[in-house]
Amino acid sequence: MKSFEIYIILKNHFGEIGSWWPKDSPFEVVIGAILTQQSTWTNVEKAIKNLKEENILTPRDISSIPLDKLKHLIKPSGFFNQKAERLKGISEYILKNYKGDINLLLSKNKAELREELLKFKGVGKETADSIILYAAEKNEFVVDAYTKRLYSRLGNVEENIEYDDLKKYIITEIPEELKLYQEFHGLIVLLGKNLCKKKNPKCISCPLASKCNFN
Ligand code: SF4
């Protein structure tokens, strides 16, 4: 089954979700993209709520807050020691190189931005692409564990496909449009969280079941 068909089936099933990543500012997307590593979105939301309650929402705020306090606030997202240091590192870099204005970094062209993001400690391809797609709002498709699981279960790709290969495979089959990139990724996340789970997928309720190789 082609990717565009998967997108249409998921959209008909879950409805239009548009740019689903919750954000009050581009920097909040950066925070979320770091906190969501090896975590669930529910736990990320608890950590972001803690930061919001303390008004810690900018690179300057993150740089100036004591490390232990930052760790405490983001604790619900797990791996908080590592993530606090990553957030500090990015925030200090933005302060030093962009006077604290993340928009100056995000306004770079897509290739330059991706290269720069990938230099940050703890920012891999999925995190960088999430920041480009949802914070910079540029056409960069994001693939994640849900995407890999779905495409391998459907029989489209091997289970151990590399990040870049899966991304290339998908983007050759869909129009290059920001809203579609954001929405398709969001729909795959919804499917993965609710139906195409790692253990015991709920195939009986899945809109892709008739075309899936899994069972
Ligand atoms: S039918 Fe089952 S395995 Fe296939 S995509 Fe749907 S939930 Fe996943």
UniProtKB/TrEMBL annotation:
- Keyword check for Iron-sulfur, yes or no: yes
Q: Which GO molecular function annotations are given, in alphabetical order?
A: 4 iron, 4 sulfur cluster binding; hydrolase activity, acting on glycosyl bonds; metal ion binding
- Keyword Electron transport listed? The answer is no
Residues of the signal peptide: none
| EC number annotated for this UniProt entry | 3.2.2.-
**Needed cofactors:** [4Fe-4S] cluster
Q: Which Gene3D superfamilies would you find in this protein's record?
A: Helix-hairpin-Helix base-excision DNA repair enzymes (C-terminal) (1.10.1670.10), Hypothetical protein, domain 2 (1.10.340.30)
Organism, as annotated: Candidatus Methanofastidiosum methylothiophilum
Q: What is this protein called?
A: G/T mismatches repair enzyme
Similarity-based family: Belongs to the Nth/MutY family.
Q: Which residues form the HhH-GPD domain?
A: 35-194
Q: Which GO terms describe its biological process?
A: base-excision repair
- Could you list this entry's UniProt keywords, alphabetically sorted: 4Fe-4S, DNA damage, DNA repair, Glycosidase, Hydrolase, Iron, Iron-sulfur, Metal-binding
Q: Which domain of life is it from?
A: Archaea
**Cross-referenced Pfam families, in alphabetical order?**
HhH-GPD
> Enzyme class, one word?
hydrolase
